[in-house]
Structure formats: C-alpha cells, structure tokens
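Design a sequence for this backbone.
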C-alpha cells in the first residue's frame, strides 16, 4: 500500500566508499527539508555492506560534511554492516516463497551465454547484464552455486506489473509492466557467499524496518524502484512514496561520481567555500 505510512520519515543513505560531492549534498538537503516541511524525521543510514570498498575515513567524512552543511539526524545511525541477521531473515522469506534459486555462473559465463543467440535470452541492459536464466531450473545447491538470485518470473506470477507513487521528477503513479521488469531487470543477484547481500535486498529491508514513508534519492535510481517495490510486497513491507530528484551534473553535463574528487565537499570547504556557497551552487535558499 503506497503512501500509508505516517508520520513523515525519510533517510539519506550514503555508502562510505568515497568522498561526498555536491550531488550527495543536494540529496541530503532535499531530504532534510522535506522532513522539516512535513514535521517529520530525517535519518542518516550508513550503507556499508560492501566491506572491501567501505573505509572508516570515508564514514567519518560523511558526518563531518553533513554537519558542515548544517544537517542533523537522530543517533545512533543504522549501519548495514550490523544488520546481517535481518537480511538473512528476508532472504529466508523469499526462499521459502520459492522466489529464489542458486546460480553457479560467473560474469564470463553470463557474457558467453548472452552473446550466443538463443531463444528466450534477454538483452544486455545499458549498464548491467540481464541474467539469461542458465541456472534457473537446475536445482543447484548453495555448495555448488554460491550466488542466490531472484526468480523474477516467479516473483511476478499473477501480476500485470508493479506500481509506486513518485513525488519528485515525473511525479504521479508509475506503472512498470511485468514484461519490462523481465526485460530490463531480470533475475537479479540477492546474495553471494563471498560478498553478502545485495544493495536491493538490504535497502528494502532497512526502509521497511525504519518505517521510511518517503525515499528521497537521485533520479538514477528511479528505473530500479519497481524491483524494490516487488521485493517489499513479497517481504510484507509497506511501500513508501518515492521522491527522485534531478541529478547534479558537472559543467560538461556529466553526472557527478564519487571518483570526481574535484566536486568533493571537503575540497570545496578547503578552498574556502562556505555551506551557503554550496547552497547557492545547488540553487537552494539559505534555510537549513
Ligand atoms: N547507498 C546507496 C547509494 O549511495 C543509497 C541508494 C538509495 O538511496 O536507495 O547510492
């Protein structure tokens, strides 16, 4: 049920894998302002499940940068690295519902299967490989096949598609058909023995646990929202509203990434910019 959650609660959920830049500042500020306007709460969540890439120095810098911008949030913050039990419970639920299978394919296997013309194979998406389903009906055990995938066909059984309410860019009710989910997202990885659970599973579990009523984040995540809504429905979690905001781009029009250190907030601060200067650059008024 979309939008039934009250009071208003949103979260900013950075991963400590690099320095925060202007795009992160925009996201955090929009979230905090929406919470304030609605007399709600703004939470900070540290999404540190990707252990090899997460660094405590980056985490410390997140706190420093956000405080510098004038933001505040309740303590303690939720840390995904401490939530493995909750994620395992969610995975068990999906497994018990027959919505997952073990997969033994490597990336190279998947590429090879996708390049060989075969009936029913899915196209390669703009950024990700859509899994061709090689292991879907093989009944492999976790010992032989370390990756756990969502069986998208099973997850969509009896549904025409998935819908969610968008309050940001392209506001309104978004309907994503079952066919689109199969073609553009497919049997995504939910967990892998060596790397743990996927972003999608963790984020949905935590948004549900924290009773987030509106997810505020960049427009780049709008295309995968239907997948997260589908997972929520199977996990018995409420679907929040989604507020996807415009992306902050560099002078050449390219979306900012963590590796673009030139836009890092710490660097701007070191150059003598104030938090108000950052607000000006983002086109936001000076209230915090
Ligand atoms: N940790 C994710 C990121 O940094 C958060 C995405 C989300 O808000 O759902 O992109």
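Sequence:
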């Amino acid at each position: 049920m979309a939008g039934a959650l009250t009071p208003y609660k949103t979260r900013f959920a950075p991963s400590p894998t690099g320095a925060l830049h202007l795009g992160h500042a925009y996201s955090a500020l929009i979230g905090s302002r929406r919470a304030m306007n609605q007399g709600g709460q703004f939470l900070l969540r540290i999404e540190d499940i990707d252990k090899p890439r997460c660094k405590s120095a980056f985490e410390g810098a997140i706190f420093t940068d956000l405080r510098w911008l004038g933001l505040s949030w309740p303590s303690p913050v939720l840390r995904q690295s401490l939530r493995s039990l909750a994620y395992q419970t969610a995975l068990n639920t999906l497994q018990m519902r027959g919505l997952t299978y073990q997969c033994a394919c490597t990336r190279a296997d998947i590429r090879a299967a996708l390049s060989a013309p075969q009936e029913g194979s899915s196209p390669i998406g703009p950024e990700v490989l859509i899994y061709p389903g090689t292991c879907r009906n093989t009944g492999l055990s976790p010992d032989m096949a370390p990756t756990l995938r969502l069986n998208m066909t099973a997850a969509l059984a009896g549904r025409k598609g998935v819908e969610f309410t968008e309050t940001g860019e392209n506001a309104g009710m978004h309907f994503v058909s079952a066919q689109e989910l199969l073609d553009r997202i497919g049997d995504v990885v939910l967990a892998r023995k060596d790397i743990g659970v996927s972003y999608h599973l963790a984020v949905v579990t935590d948004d549900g646990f924290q009773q987030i009523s509106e997810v505020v984040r960049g427009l780049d995540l709008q295309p995968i929202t239907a997948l997260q809504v589908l997972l929520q429905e199977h996990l018995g979690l409420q679907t929040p509203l989604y507020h996807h905001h415009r992306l902050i781009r560099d002078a050449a029009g390219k979306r900012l990434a963590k590796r673009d250190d030139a836009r890092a907030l710490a660097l701007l601060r070191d150059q003598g910019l104030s938090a108000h200067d950052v607000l000006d650059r983002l086109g936001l008024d000076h209230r915090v």
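The two ends are 32 Å apart (CA to CA).
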